[in-house]
Amino acid sequence: MPSASFPTSDVEGVLGILRSDPTHEIPDGFVCQNVTFVGSVTTFPTVPTSDRDRTPGPFHGIKINGSFASEVQDDFGQPTSGPLIRDIYLNNIKVKNMASLPTTIFGVSGRHVTSNCEFEYTKDAGWAFNEEVILIGSRSYGSNDNGFSLSRGNRKVVCVGNTVENAALYGIWLSGYNSSIGPTKFTCTGNTVIDTGRACINLDLGLSYGIIANNYLNQGYHRGPVGHVGDIGTDGISISGASGNVHATGLLVTNNVIKNAARNGIGIKELDNALISGKHIINPGMQYRANGTEILVADTDSGHGISMNTSGTYSNVRVMGNNLVESRSTPLCNLPIYRPNTSGTRMARNEATGAWRAKNNTLTINDAVMPGSPVVLQMAGDDTSVEVQWNMRGSGKLALRNADGSVLNLHSTSTSNAAKATMLMSAGADDTDYIGAVTASRNGDTTSSTVAIRPFGNNLLASDGTAAPFWVKGMPSNSRGIIGFGGGQVNWRTAVDNTAYTANANDYLIAWTNLTAGRTLTLKDASTLEAGQTYIVADESGLASTHNITIAPLVGTINGAVNVKVASNYGQLLVWSDGTNWHSSPDLSGKVDVVVGKGLSSNYYTTVEQSKLAGIAALATRNATDADLRDRTTHIGTQSITTVTGLQAALDGKLSRSLSDAIADAVNYTLGTTTGTKFGTATTQKIGFFKCNASSAVDCDY
């Protein structure tokens, strides 16, 4: 291999520092391997800790500064730029107990490869302003800074198969620094990061065009290092832009396992043109912030699976196919996905399982779907509620259902006494061309509510077509309508068995099925109900005439009185409210029915008149004397013979003329020549009278 001589310092008999400078040329393709560097740190914590004790000794194991770097000085006041250094290889290097960066590689042209190296109780092995960096198969343990810092100005970065544990700050720093932009064209895959004080992987300060995939990240709920706790940067993966409106861009973050993040599984701010998919995020968030205050369900910046920062802006960001899990016996997670600003982001096919504390999971489908392919939003697990927004265009149909047939809910998260949840229906190209709405609203308390179905100047039908059995015709004012029934009507019946009862807003027909004593129906204060509240009060026992049903308002009057009564067997009353007092119809039980074609007089038959009529004695009208009989000449009517006493009997004793004539006709006789007083000889004789005629010799003057 190429070789070169370097100034060295012995620390405990081990090579302490290897440093390039302009007086020592490093040939192309230089290889350093199988070397151990030991520093002077004397504190070896087993949890993320930034403060360390040390004795005098070297700060670095290997420090290289080449001409590809553009900065003038590093953090230690040393020049970052040096001679042309090309293709540096570090293999099986071990650096222990170093007070500062164990290896610092600045400005290398061509390739730089660090492989199979170990760094224990040092600061972060660091790379900046290199043309190509490959970090593979290396390990950092107990760093009092980051694990590995693949920092500003690096191009073509590969970070594969490395391990970081107990780093005080970030596990893998793939970020810019100060005002410098982060690396570009990078791959970070197959790494294991455990127990870090801040984010396991930090993608900060506008890095661009890279893949973060197939990493196992377990932050261990640390909020900063011991002695310097804080909430900043304590997500499992942190992504953000830089000042001057520089966004992170072109990222694929996929198939990572993120467990026990102290703040959010993934925290995002200022990101463009990115896909975040295939994550398995387990139990993000903890109970307390760094200052000891408890994290609440209402907090918007902590305890989320994936959190898109409120102040951030985004474009062309898709979050899809992620699995978000809350499995702790006492749930501490808030929202699976927190997305306060929907602009520039799309959510698809994300699944949340377990008892997330905040129930309004924002999981959005915004995909173009091929014809015949249904879109399914499936929430597995417990009773987690779902907030869904649909924007259906074209002639497609939308069907809502739960796979198990359970109820779908429209939910308002407002705690106001006037909270409402409304589903608006529109038609046409204009989304605001509303034709109807379904609104659920709270009526001043948590136990009383109203559900309103409102057709906006249209018809609401119970089935398709104009011959529906039920319809509501809306009015343009949107406050009135007409209800039509094309079939039978069934009303709610409340059966009351021999007891008092207080009417509720959802009662309609209130019927007593048994009465052994008078019972009272109490009506609520009319001002607490809608004007027009109506009840039918009925006696089904047939005993109300003996045991009256008294209807009495709790406040106000009914028909201007303190009460009204159902006092007839099988009687009923219609009762309604005007919003202040109560009114009722009269009890019509036992009233006379109108005969068809007849009418009832308005002159009511009173009890006084009934008493007067009952006092008239039998035959009281048969009291007329002879003087009261009418003269026939003034009597224009007719009168039966039976009304004159004894007249018929007197007439029966007289011989009628018709009978006399009949007897006379029955006698035949022969008259002889009349001489003097001599009569003719009769040939036939019957008892009776002789017939008188002109030729008779019988003297008829009798």
Automatic annotation (TrEMBL):
State the SUPFAM superfamilies in the record.
Pectin lyase-like (SSF51126)
Record SMART domains: PbH1
Q: Which InterPro entries match?
A: PbH1, Pectin_lyas_fold, Pectin_lyase_fold/virulence
Q: Which domain of life is it from?
A: Bacteria
What name is this protein filed under?
Parallel beta helix pectate lyase-like protein
Q: Where does this protein come from, organism-wise? A: Williamsia limnetica
